[in-house]
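DM from R.C. (forwarded with permission)

"hey, sorry to bug you on a friday — could you get me a structure for this? deadline for the figure draft is monday and I only need the backbone to look sensible"
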Amino acid sequence: LVWNEILRSLWSRQRLWNNACNSVLRPTGGETQRLSFPTSTNRYEITGLQPGTEYVITLYTLYEGREVATPASTSLTVDQPVGSVSNLRVLETLGRTVRLGWTGVAGATEYLIRIINTEDGKERSLSIPGDQTTLDLEDLQEGVSYRISLTALVGSREGTPVTVTIRAEVQSVGDVQVQDLGGGRVRLTWTRVSRATGYRVTVLNTQDGTEQSELLGDRTSIDLSDLASGVTYTITVTPLVGSQEGSPVSVSIRTEEVVSEPIITNLRILERGSDRIRISWTGIAQATGYRVTWRSGDGRELSQTLPRNASSYEIVGLRENEGYRVGVAVLVGGVEGNPTTVSTRTEQSVGGVTDLRVTDTSSNQVRIAWSRAAGATGYRVTWRQGSAQAQSRLLPGDSSSFTMEGLVADESLVIAVYTLIGQRESSAVTLSSRTAPELVGRVSGLRVLDTGNRRIRIAWTPLPRATEYKISWRRDDGEESSRRVGSDVTSFTVDGLQEDSAYRVSVSALIGSREGSPASLNARTEPVRTLTKLSTLDASSSSIRIAWTPVARATGYRITWRKRDGVDISRVVTADTTTFSIENLQEDTPYSIRVAAVFGNRDGTAATISGRTAKEQDTVGTVTRLQVLESRANVARVTWVGVQGATSYRIVWQRTDGGPESSRVVPGDVTAVDLEGLDEGSNYEVRVTALVQNREGPPVTISVTTRESEPPPAGGVGLHLCAC
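My reply, with the result:
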């Protein structure tokens, strides 16, 4: 509002009376509002009015208690435009339902939505309250585009419409997987569909056309059972959102055929004994296991269930010289096929010799005799004196006596005789005896005092009444030399020997011309060679593996290690060893390592290196489920479960009773090997270690026993990689 100022002559009066102007504001037909302001004001902005409304405005001037009204004026407020929604978008699509969302308009009383089918041009409209900012459009046609127009309304006034184009997409489950559980059962899994309230699974037998359906809740898997063998099924999964259906997804499977006829082939007897029978057969690819049954002549039947990888079995606890019927049936899931059978008989036990006796003894010999066993094809005689190693000799079947020579005088011995019939052996028949005392005593305490490159110095305990001592020595491949010394001599240096060579040195006592049994020992002259090329192969958090170049004629190697502030720890290994893993070390710790060649009872010059264990986070994992898959006379197959990230595996094997150690390294994707060229009927220790580059994990060890069989063709130990 704007008006002219009051006349100057009146202004002072107004000031005297503190006069002021009043303005009266009243909307047409509405309530009157009053505003007051001083006489110095001739302009005022009235706010807070309603848009699109007519107002009557009257200005009053106050004169010393009187009011003079200015003629009233009428004015109309202007309508402000209604805004439009923003951020109109598709929140979610499922089948024939699309959810929209938007940012609302302030003061909106409702929204008008127009839905136009872009293909046939059909249109439908609906309105929703002004406080709603989402809407589900239902019953849309799948695969059809729609243009959606959204208009905000404030009373009867409309804002500017905003449009968006949507499409009702086909919604379906994903990643449908089928797992065969065997025995006519499969497991079906799939990924969850957003907002799905359930799923329909339909199973169609394509052979007879029968169909079965099952409604599930929000589960994403189902086990289907009682499926016919050898039949193709079509399985369909359809997502449900309330009463609406998504797009179905189908997969086809074919169940395995279960053969009811006997399918075990090549069932055969490998070995028979008096109380055991060993059988084998050709394995079946689809088998989940095998059942072995055996029945004796009296009708008593026993059975044993074996895993799917079995192809042989030893039945034990049988009665000797009795017939048995042995059967093997294949198992596929819960179905057992007809057994393949074979009849056999356990063998008669082998009887031992009788009347075993000693017929003659001397200071270094014992002669025994016995009565022959019926049907014997040979005899095995074993004997042992004191703590010495047992000795054995095989004799032909017509033997009835045997002389054991080279015995120690005046010492007891245990003798055993076994009867052999083919490959079978009887229990031992034993007796004890004792050699006769010597006429001339035997020197004692024979020992090596010192060795050099070309000499060996020995000493012994003097023998009472001895008049001389005879010292003899020879190399394994050389002639014997000897020397006599007086009775007062109890040590002697054998010199002029060949370096790094083994000698057998003997000392015997003489009384006049009579000579007693010699006391002997083995010794070796020192080599001039020293160990070379000592290196570290790899290290874990608790071990360091080292390697070196072998030294000729070494009888072993001494490995010594210590921490910086620790004590020496030593280990002696055999001469055929060129690698060694130092175990039970501290994590991330430096170690000093020395390796020296051993020559008899002396050590060569040691080579030294430094090594450091790895940190724990660098430790390589351990293989699991190491097992013997199959063992034959000269071949053993071992398998394992690999280690994540392994770049290779080291397989090491060695006979448990000694012998050279063999090893191979295979790629990281190999989890089974064939160890070939093994000795039949022998026990082996097999170690498998996972490697990540030059780091290795802890080894895992199993024992493997090969079978005895006909001698295999000559050949070296080999390694065969298996695609298992």
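R.C.: lifesaver. The two ends are 98 Å apart (CA to CA).
me: no worries. Residues 8-16 form the longest helix (9 residues).
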